[in-house]
Amino acid sequence: MSTVIDQSGEQFPTVSIEKELKKSYLDYAMSVIVGRALPDVRDGLKPVHRRALFAMRELGVYHNRPYVKSARIVGDVIGKYHPHGDTAAYDTIVRMAQDFSMRYPLVDGQGNFGSMDGDSPAAMRYTEARMTRIDREIVNDLDKDTVDWMPNYDNSLNEPVVMPSKIPNLLVNGSSGIAVGMATNIPPHNITEVLDALIAIVEDPNLTVHQLMSIITGPDFPTGGQICGRAGIREAYETGRGVVVMRALNHVEKIKEGKREAIVITEIPYQVNKASLVEKIAELVKDKKINSISEVRDESDRHGLRIVIELKKDEISEIVVNQLYTMTQLQKSFGIILLAIVNNKPEILNLKQVLEHFVLHRKVVVIRRTSFELRKAEEKAHILEGLNIAINNLDDVVALIKASKNPQEAKDELMRRYELSEIQAQTILDMRLQRLTGLERDKIAIDYENILKEIEKLKEILGSEVLVMNIVKQEFNELKESYGDERRTEIIDAIDEILPEDLIAPEDMAVTVTHSGYIKRNPVSLYRSQHRGGKGITAVKNIEEDFVSKLYVASTLDNFLFFTNFGKVYWRKVYQLPLAGRTARGKAIVNLLNLEENEKIAAILPIDTFDDETKQKTILMVTRFGRIKKTSLQEFARPLRKGKRALTINEGDEIIDVHVLNGEDTVLLVTQKGMCIHFDESDLRTMGRVAAGVRGIRLGDDDSVVSAIVVKSEESILIATENGFGKRSPIEEYRLQKRGGKGVRGIKQSVRNGNVIAAKQVDDNEEVILIADSGKIIRIDLSSIRVIGRSTQGVRLINLDNEEKVVSLDSIAKDRNDEGEDLEEDLDNEGSSIEGPAEDVSDGQDDE
């Protein structure tokens, strides 16, 4: 440190501003941490709480004494011990008196001390207060040298450093505070559970946190409610930090003769303002964010809390409750931070450490109290011993005193003649004459014998840790009998996250998928019921080269599985599909999912649920190279946003089709060269989700699978080729074989026919749509294609120009009325599509 000299010649030391700021700020921070914001691990009190209770003790306002004005208490607190504002001191007293803030209130208040609605308390000149019965367990034994003392802020008085509390207040009432760079947030607990855990720690100090959690099951809030799940509790008790989810307690009542329902809330989460909660619900109704509520009322009174939420007719209460959990403080998180002052330093503790520190505190208090009582007993024994000597030599003592000129001479002579101490001699001189009666003499002798026994007992306690811990345990048991009560907060099993579907009412939707990959949904109610033979309404406006290829009726909560050619599966709930106009195509599926480059949708499967009934169902996946795999539907019950691997694909291969199997189905695979194999699904064992599968059909050179059909009925099989030819054959023509073989020929692959592009199982109530690579589309009534044997070349399905090829085959429900008239315009655009019967060009020759 250097010095500088000013103009007057006076020297001043120079200090580095950086070092001074660091030192001063750290001093300030530690002052806030230790002296204001954080509780002590031993008594669970912050300095202001401790000083308020000590001031009330000094005033003598115990639970069985008359109330005194709160202003008088506040005056003593700030005038003697806590040199801060009166508002801070009064707010502390107010909170300690609120039964909705403290699990076990430490102040018995009379007057307006605030409410759950956030009402401010009355001014301290209007309210009165006194200590509660439980406070005596916190302040008892203060006068027995059980704790250290320190001077107050002006050194005029002494105050306790910590209270000799028997109550584990840190856990029982919790604490919250924000210091410099740290904060504490300890929830209240049930006193019976905490005392049981302390007794267990005394009996077995090696208990683990997990074992203690079987005793202390979790926080117990004064406002009741529910705690959802134990994971957050376990994390907080093991590490000192965790988050628990609190929920209001509610039930449903019938109103208006059972035609409507009302949600009745009887307990709300801890530290939630009831008035603000009701106001928030009303705002949600006003802003039409919740449309199911007709009225909200607060019917709370002195008998308890009651918020009534009336629903409109036919509304589902479970959905409204989930909406309220999501949008209001009916569900709230409580972040636990077990931070307290330990040996003048802030520490984050786990549950066992908190209990151990309190047990150690009680052990120290018991030892110091016993030592104090031993000193007092020895002092009393010393005096009684002197009295006994005087009584045994009564005549001589009386004569000695009478012969003495003054008290000092008498005292000196007593000390010399009977070897008494100064205290003993003075006590003999101060003894009243009534003590010389026979009864009083006997009483002194008995008292002396009793005090000797007490001294022996106290020394035995101090010499045995076991006896000390037995006293600690006995006091815990006495507290449990006096103050133990039942839990208020119920702990329920972990709940799943409230998903959007929990906020959506089930509703039937018509989901349409177009040939070119557009999807949308509309309420089924949009398509009004009509009489037989009606004209119908347009579901999707006709677009060139596109048409509705699939129509599903599903609930808003059902699942759609999208399988891609890359072997991945994506999930979407029906309510997540675009809601488009009745004549719009909707949204491209590729824009709905997070697909990779060149990834395309190979199949769509609607699944209503993944419950126990679906355990028997499996999913069949077929690749272009003839690999097949059967996987349990339950493997796809847990969705991932980025999709999930459904099948391991070999390089160059891709999924072409996916189907749901019920356990008794048969499968028909059709290849590009016209080969077909028909086998029972029992030939295929169930495999894991990422397995590559097994061979379904043995392919020839340059061959590949183009279609997979799950045979559901006795209807015929339609096979179409790239040159516009095809045929329908009975399913009986395709005999059952074992999977993995070459199969039989379904249609002859020739120059005339070309390669097979697709196959479907069809019936006369459907129409088939063929699309050429030029964009030409034809829709053919399947009743115009007669069923012929498998050993034929087929018939012409579409007339193609040179170089044109058929690239796609699909089928839709027949769209005609009873007279055969078109219900909608043909799917043509500028003459690009044609319609008509198929031309029979079969030559009748065997093509096997």
TrEMBL record:
<dbReference type="GO" id="GO:0003677">
    <property type="term" value="F:DNA binding"/>
</dbReference>
<dbReference type="InterPro" id="IPR005743">
    <property type="entry name" value="GyrA"/>
</dbReference>
<feature type="active site" description="O-(5'-phospho-DNA)-tyrosine intermediate">
    <location>
        <position position="126"/>
    </location>
</feature>
<comment type="subunit">
    <text>Heterotetramer, composed of two GyrA and two GyrB chains. In the heterotetramer, GyrA contains the active site tyrosine that forms a transient covalent intermediate with DNA, while GyrB binds cofactors and catalyzes ATP hydrolysis.</text>
</comment>
<keyword id="KW-0963">Cytoplasm</keyword>
<dbReference type="GO" id="GO:0005524">
    <property type="term" value="F:ATP binding"/>
</dbReference>
<feature type="compositionally biased region" description="Acidic residues">
    <location>
        <begin position="837"/>
        <end position="848"/>
    </location>
</feature>
<dbReference type="InterPro" id="IPR013757">
    <property type="entry name" value="Topo_IIA_A_a_sf"/>
</dbReference>
<dbReference type="InterPro" id="IPR035516">
    <property type="entry name" value="Gyrase/topoIV_suA_C"/>
</dbReference>
<feature type="domain" description="Topo IIA-type catalytic">
    <location>
        <begin position="38"/>
        <end position="503"/>
    </location>
</feature>
<dbReference type="GO" id="GO:0009330">
    <property type="term" value="C:DNA topoisomerase type II (double strand cut, ATP-hydrolyzing) complex"/>
</dbReference>
<keyword id="KW-0799">Topoisomerase</keyword>
<dbReference type="GO" id="GO:0005694">
    <property type="term" value="C:chromosome"/>
</dbReference>
<keyword id="KW-0547">Nucleotide-binding</keyword>
<keyword id="KW-0413">Isomerase</keyword>
<dbReference type="GO" id="GO:0006265">
    <property type="term" value="P:DNA topological change"/>
</dbReference>
<feature type="short sequence motif" description="GyrA-box">
    <location>
        <begin position="530"/>
        <end position="536"/>
    </location>
</feature>
<keyword id="KW-0067">ATP-binding</keyword>
<dbReference type="InterPro" id="IPR013760">
    <property type="entry name" value="Topo_IIA-like_dom_sf"/>
</dbReference>
<comment type="function">
    <text>A type II topoisomerase that negatively supercoils closed circular double-stranded (ds) DNA in an ATP-dependent manner to modulate DNA topology and maintain chromosomes in an underwound state. Negative supercoiling favors strand separation, and DNA replication, transcription, recombination and repair, all of which involve strand separation. Also able to catalyze the interconversion of other topological isomers of dsDNA rings, including catenanes and knotted rings. Type II topoisomerases break and join 2 DNA strands simultaneously in an ATP-dependent manner.</text>
</comment>
<dbReference type="InterPro" id="IPR013758">
    <property type="entry name" value="Topo_IIA_A/C_ab"/>
</dbReference>
<dbReference type="InterPro" id="IPR050220">
    <property type="entry name" value="Type_II_DNA_Topoisomerases"/>
</dbReference>
<protein>
    <recommendedName>
        <fullName>DNA gyrase subunit A</fullName>
        <ecNumber>5.6.2.2</ecNumber>
    </recommendedName>
</protein>
<keyword id="KW-0238">DNA-binding</keyword>
<dbReference type="GO" id="GO:0034335">
    <property type="term" value="F:DNA negative supercoiling activity"/>
</dbReference>
<dbReference type="Pfam" id="PF03989">
    <property type="entry name" value="DNA_gyraseA_C"/>
</dbReference>
<dbReference type="InterPro" id="IPR006691">
    <property type="entry name" value="GyrA/parC_rep"/>
</dbReference>
<dbReference type="GO" id="GO:0006261">
    <property type="term" value="P:DNA-templated DNA replication"/>
</dbReference>
<dbReference type="InterPro" id="IPR002205">
    <property type="entry name" value="Topo_IIA_dom_A"/>
</dbReference>
<feature type="region of interest" description="Disordered">
    <location>
        <begin position="809"/>
        <end position="848"/>
    </location>
</feature>
<comment type="similarity">
    <text>Belongs to the type II topoisomerase GyrA/ParC subunit family.</text>
</comment>
<dbReference type="Pfam" id="PF00521">
    <property type="entry name" value="DNA_topoisoIV"/>
</dbReference>
<dbReference type="GO" id="GO:0005737">
    <property type="term" value="C:cytoplasm"/>
</dbReference>
<feature type="compositionally biased region" description="Acidic residues">
    <location>
        <begin position="818"/>
        <end position="829"/>
    </location>
</feature>
